[in-house]
C-alpha cells in the first residue's frame, strides 16, 4: 500500500463543518427541543457551562478523527468528484451509523424521532465532508 497524502486544511475544514453543523443542528432553531424531548432531558441552566465546553471540545476532537478516517476511505475509493465523495460519505453513514444505531434504538426502546434527528445530522455531515475531501486534496 502506498503512503497517503492528506490536505491538512481539508481535514481541518471538514472537522469544522461537522462541528458547526452539529451546533446548528442541535440548536433552538432546528432540533434541540424535539431531541431533548425524545431523551427526556429538561433544560437546567445551572449545568450548562462546564459540561457544554467539555462536550464541544470532545465533539471537535471526534470530528477531526472522523474526518481523517473519512479521508482515508475517500482516497482508497479513488473518489475524485464531489458526487463520488458524497457517495462514500453515504456508504460510511449507512454502514457505520445507520446499521448499528437503528437496531440499538429498537433494543433501547427509543423513539424513531431520536434516530432520525441524530442520524440525519450525520447523513448531511458525511455527504458534505465526503464531497469536500474528494475534491480538495
Explain the overall architecture:
- The structure is a single chain.
- By secondary structure, the protein is an all-alpha fold.
- The chain has one domain (8-135).
- The protein is 78% helix and 0% strand.
- It contains 5 helices and no strands.
- It has helices spanning 8-25, 32-39, 48-77, 82-108, 112-135.
- α1 runs antiparallel to α5.
- The longest helix is centred in the middle third of the chain and has 30 residues, at 48-77.
- It is globular and about 45 Å long.
Which helices and strands appear, and what pairs or packs with what?
Elements: H1 8-25, H2 32-39, H3 48-77, H4 82-108, H5 112-135
Helix pairs in contact: 1-3, 1-5, 2-5, 3-4, 3-5, 4-5
List keywords for this structure.
single chain, 137 residues, globular, mainly alpha, 0% strand, 78% helix, 5 helices
The helix count comes to 5
Largest sheet: none
Q: How widely separated are the two ends?
A: 19 Å
Helix content: over 70%
Dominant shape = globular
Question: Rounded to an integer, what's the Rg over CA atoms?
Answer: 16 Å
Amino acid at each position: 500500500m502506498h503512503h497517503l497524502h492528506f490536505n491538512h486544511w481539508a481535514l481541518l475544514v471538514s472537522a469544522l463543518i461537522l462541528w458547526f453543523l452539529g451546533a446548528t443542528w442541535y440548536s433552538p432553531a432546528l432540533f434541540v427541543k424535539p431531541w431533548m424531548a425524545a431523551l427526556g432531558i429538561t433544560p437546567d441552566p445551572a449545568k450548562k457551562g462546564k459540561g457544554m465546553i467539555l462536550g464541544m471540545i470532545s465533539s471537535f476532537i471526534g470530528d477531526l478523527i472522523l474526518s481523517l478516517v473519512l479521508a482515508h476511505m475517500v482516497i482508497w475509493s479513488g473518489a475524485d468528484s464531489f458526487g463520488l465523495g458524497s457517495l462514500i460519505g453515504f456508504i460510511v453513514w449507512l454502514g457505520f451509523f445507520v446499521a448499528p444505531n437503528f437496531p440499538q434504538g429498537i433494543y433501547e426502546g427509543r423513539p424513531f424521532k431520536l434516530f432520525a434527528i441524530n442520524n440525519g445530522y450525520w447523513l448531511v455531515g458525511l455527504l458534505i465532508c465526503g464531497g469536500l475531501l474528494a475534491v480538495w486534496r
